[in-house]
Amino acid sequence: MSLASEVVVADGLSLIGNIGVERNEEKGKSTHPAFILRGINYSILKSFDVNFGVKGGLNKPETDLTFLAGIALRF
Fold first, then answer.
1. d(Cα 74, Cα 45) in Å, to the nearest integer?
2. Whole-model pTM above 0.90?
3. Domain coordinates in residue numbering, the chain
4. How many Å is the maximal CA-CA distance in the chain?
């Protein structure tokens, strides 16, 4: 379960935010990983995006800090 938002700051440039909880995959663990994520999405072309983000853990089961990068190609 998560809650996300996107704010367009310029043509082709968006700021992304997400906070949520994922199901713990470890058997017998009742605490589910909680996280907060912030990122930026830049559309280089109409069909090509580049994005970067940082994900932080809000509790013990979630990884403390993760740096993310990706591309999206639409056709």
1. 10
2. no
3. 2-73
4. 47
